[in-house]
């Protein structure tokens, strides 16, 4: 029996309100939450409720004062000193990492980017224009490529970004079209999970799946202010040790959890602001067998490690 490989999939869905998530039909996210937990995250007082600062905090594990991304223009950042988790894992731990996204500052030199400095592999598809329809097409292409990579490649940590819900809210507000965009994002998450389950080595792998949003929206579709609707984000987490919601989770905690889920020690010199919210193996609990979110799997067995 080959040694168990720990792998992490992070899906970032931009701009999804928590109340919308709870109301609409999202069967794949619902199963993940049932296997692990759904927890609200409050964007902290220092961080603007904008995509750039929030995603930078999520993927670096440090706050705005350290990473220096204060808006959707990343100019003046300190990402070389405080890099994203896929870059740290690739450079300092020799891990294979993958990022798929369509928002240009995440991936290319634009507006001070890229946020993701040096993952092992990337997939970038720019939307033809900034419209909901173009972003749906972009997310579809991103999902197709991510499905291919996740099914066939041995990536230790992957980040897949879906941007259509946020763009739809900006154009059309948080009504029916926005809710439909969130449901389509859920269907794409389901396809990513199916790709993982299809892996030939799946039986010898333990997967942690984290699905997170960066910020919410006001009813008319904007964000950047301090209203509860804009400041409330959320995390769905499932996998080894992630059986119930811990005390309040912050965006900075997500990167710290990724390192722990992969069994990687963090260097104190990184000065991460986040803390992991679950352990694996001998530290806490782990879930035996299968990938979280598999609707055909038997109920998970919780084993004291």
Summary keywords:
two-stranded antiparallel sheet; globular; 11 helices; 9 strands; 305 residues; alpha/beta; disordered C terminus; 7-stranded mixed β-sheet
State the total count of DSSP E strands: 9
Amount of beta strand? 15-25%
Report strand order across the widest sheet. 2-7-6-1-5-3-4
**Oligomeric state as shown:** single chain
Radius of gyration: 18 Å
> Which structural class fits the helix and strand makeup?
alpha/beta
User: Which spans of ≥5 residues are poorly predicted at pLDDT below 50?
Assistant: 281-291, 293-305
Characterization of this structure:
The protein has eleven helices and nine strands. The strands form two sheets. Strands 2-7-6-1-5-3-4 form a seven-stranded mixed beta sheet, with helices on both faces. The chain has a two-stranded antiparallel ribbon with strand order 8-9. It has 305 residues and is of the alpha/beta class.
Secondary structure blueprint with pairings:
Layout: E1 5-13, H1 18-23, H2 27-35, E2 37-42, H3 51-60, H4 64-67, H5 85-92, E3 97-101, H6 104-107, E4 121-124, H7 132-152, E5 157-162, H8 164-172, H9 176-197, E6 205-212, H10 228-231, E7 232-238, H11 252-261, E8 285-288, E9 301-304
Parallel strand pairs: 1-5, 1-6, 3-4, 3-5
Antiparallel strand pairs: 2-7, 6-7, 8-9
Helix pairs in contact: 3-11, 7-8, 7-9, 8-9
Briefly summarize what is shown.
This protein is of the alpha/beta class.
């Amino acid at each position: 029996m080959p040694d168990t490989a720990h792998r992490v999939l992070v899906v970032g869905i931009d701009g999804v309100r928590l109340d919308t998530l709870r109301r609409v039909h999202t069967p794949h996210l619902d199963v993940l939450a049932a296997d692990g937990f759904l927890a609200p995250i409050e964007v902290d007082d220092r961080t603007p409720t904008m995509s750039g600062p929030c995603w930078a905090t999520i993927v670096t594990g440090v706050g705005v004062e350290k990473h220096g991304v204060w808006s959707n223009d990343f100019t003046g950042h300190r990402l070389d000193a405080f890099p994203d988790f896929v870059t740290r894992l690739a450079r300092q731990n020799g891990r294979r990492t993958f990022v798929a996204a369509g928002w240009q500052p995440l991936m290319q030199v634009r507006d001070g980017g890229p946020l993701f400095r040096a993952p092992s592999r990337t997939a970038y598809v720019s939307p033809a224009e900034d419209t909901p329809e173009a972003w749906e097409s972009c997310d579809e292409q991103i999902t197709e490529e991510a499905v291919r990579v996740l099914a066939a490649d041995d990536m230790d940590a992957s980040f897949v970004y879906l941007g259509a819900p946020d763009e739809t809210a900006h154009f059309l507000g948080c009504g029916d079209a926005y809710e439909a965009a969130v449901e389509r994002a859920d269907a794409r998450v389901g396809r990513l999970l199916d790709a993982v389950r299809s892996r030939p080595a799946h039986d010898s792998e333990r997967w942690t799946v984290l699905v997170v949003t960066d910020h919410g929206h006001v009813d008319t579709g904007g964000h950047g202010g301090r209203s509860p609707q804009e400041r409330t984000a959320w995390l769905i987490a499932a996998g080894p040790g992630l059986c119930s919601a811990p005390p309040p989770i912050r965006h900075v905690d997500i990167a710290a959890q990724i390192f722990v889920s992969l069994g990687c020690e963090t260097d104190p010199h990184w000065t991460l602001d986040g803390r992991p919210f679950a352990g694996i193996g001998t530290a806490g609990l782990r879930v035996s067998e299968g990938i979280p979110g598999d609707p055909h799997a038997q109920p998970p067995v919780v084993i004291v490690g």
